[in-house]
Amino acid sequence: MTHTLHIVGGGMAGSEAAWQAANLGIQVVLHEMRPKVETFAHRTGDLGEMVCSNSFRSDDHEQNAVGLLHWEMREAGGLIMDTAYTHRLPAGGALAVDRDAFSAAVTAKIAAHPNISVSHEEITELPSEGHWIFATGPLTSEALGAAIQAETGADRLAFFDAIAPIVYAETINMDVAWLQSRYDKGETEEEQKAYINCPMTKDQYEAFIDALLAADKTEFHEGETAKYFDGCLPIEVMAERGRETLRHGPMKPVGLTNPHDPETKAYAVVQLRRDNALGTLFNIVGFQTKMKYGAQTSVFKTIPGLEDASFARLGGIHRNTFLNSPTLLDDQMRLRSKPNIRFAGQVTGVEGYVESASMGLVAGRLAAAEILGQPLASVPQDTAHGALIHHITGGAEAKTFQPMNVNFGLFRPLDGLKGGRRGRKDRYKAYTDRAKACWTDWLATQKELA
User: Fold this and answer.
1) Same domain as 276, residue 192
2) Is 50 annotated as a binding residue?
3) Domains of the chain: total
């Protein structure tokens, strides 16, 4: 039996899987085709590159399911979370990072690990021998995608994932905009002022919606269908669902007071979140878009405070492929038809950086244990990791399977707790307490592996 684990894809999931397996004593070859073979969304050849947002979302591990995932990953010595904490930026209650420093650090840590080697050759087939994890994410290459489709015997499922634009901070008019996190969230003044806010009156909001709806957009190819993930909808798609949709979504004005005009309540607010440690770049929160570049600059410059904005990156759109995991993967994340292969990350049908990395963490540990001849028990369903795995490998309805963020709706209910909004705080705390105990016990069973 070979003790080498091959991992395809050097994003969040692949990098985390390599780190976990290598720390358990397994020799790992991490196959990342970039920069030799480029994608249209990536800018570098670095591992763990953040293509969309620079946020890992909420860091609250007692009242938020994604914050609980953060906690579980850190308890497991997770590469992605530990690196994120090292390069975090003020973002209120969220965990945001300097994306370039983050990916450079992930790359350096992988390169320095004695049990990991990196290959930049493209993998285009599903091997029948050896131990493999495929974590190629939403931008799986055409050749490999065809091989996966041929093996699974099913059409690849797809939706379109959009990228938010990034603005140079020095071009934002701070005589109009102001610094404040929603509800002044954060323990330090820096965190409480982590966002730039651009206010709109009702007339300005209506004009913005009109411009958004009329703008030129990227067209889909003939015969191509779009199934958007609701957590990453392009703003123009949200606007098409109703003129007030954005004002109750990413442009909601609640929890904010404009110091330039404290007596006037904004009708809508556009928020920008710091994107790098220098504070020179800010991304427009929730503003994923499929508008054409020329349309983006003209529409976004109608936002008060962004009239003279310059953009470091405009928004974009890409096809996102994922498996129908409930029909294809077992509870050890193995492909049923080729059990020498595991899948991890976004390609399994989870959505988000944190969820993708968490699936890599589990896949790396499961594969390492199997190679060492000490297979692990399935991840406890009452943990955040286990709730996700249960959902994608059998808990979801296969006919309507769509990518899913971690959320408390995936957790098994606890008896004796009040339902509804009023009981939510106690209920969520009970979920996280139970999850932490189960996760700690599961990790304890693995101390003798390495």
Assistant:
1) yes
2) no
3) 2
Q: Is 386 annotated as a binding residue?
A: no
Taking CA atoms, 181 is separated from 178, 232, 254, 257, 271, in Å, by: 10, 21, 11, 10, 9
Residue 288 lies in a domain: yes
Q: How many whole angstroms separate alpha carbon 89 and alpha carbon 273?
A: 10
What is the 8-class DSSP label of residue 121? P
Q: Is residue 46 part of a domain?
A: yes
- Average of pLDDT values for 424-447? 94
What value does the mean pLDDT of the chain take?
Answer: 91
Question: What pLDDT, on a 0 to 100 scale, did the predictor assign at position 450?
Answer: 62
Strands 27-31 and 4-8: parallel
0.85 exceeded by the pTM? Answer: no
Q: Is 25 annotated as a binding residue?
A: no
For 258-315, where are the E strands, in sequence order? Answer: 268-274, 281-284, 311-313
* Residue spans of alpha helices (H) in 123-263: 142-152, 189-192, 202-214, 235-240
11 is in an annotated binding site: yes
**Residue 109 and residue 69 share a domain:** yes
* Predicted pLDDT of residue 40: 60
Cβ-in-10-Å burial (0-12, 13-18, 19+) of 112 comes to: exposed
Q: What's the confidence (pLDDT) of residue 157?
A: 66
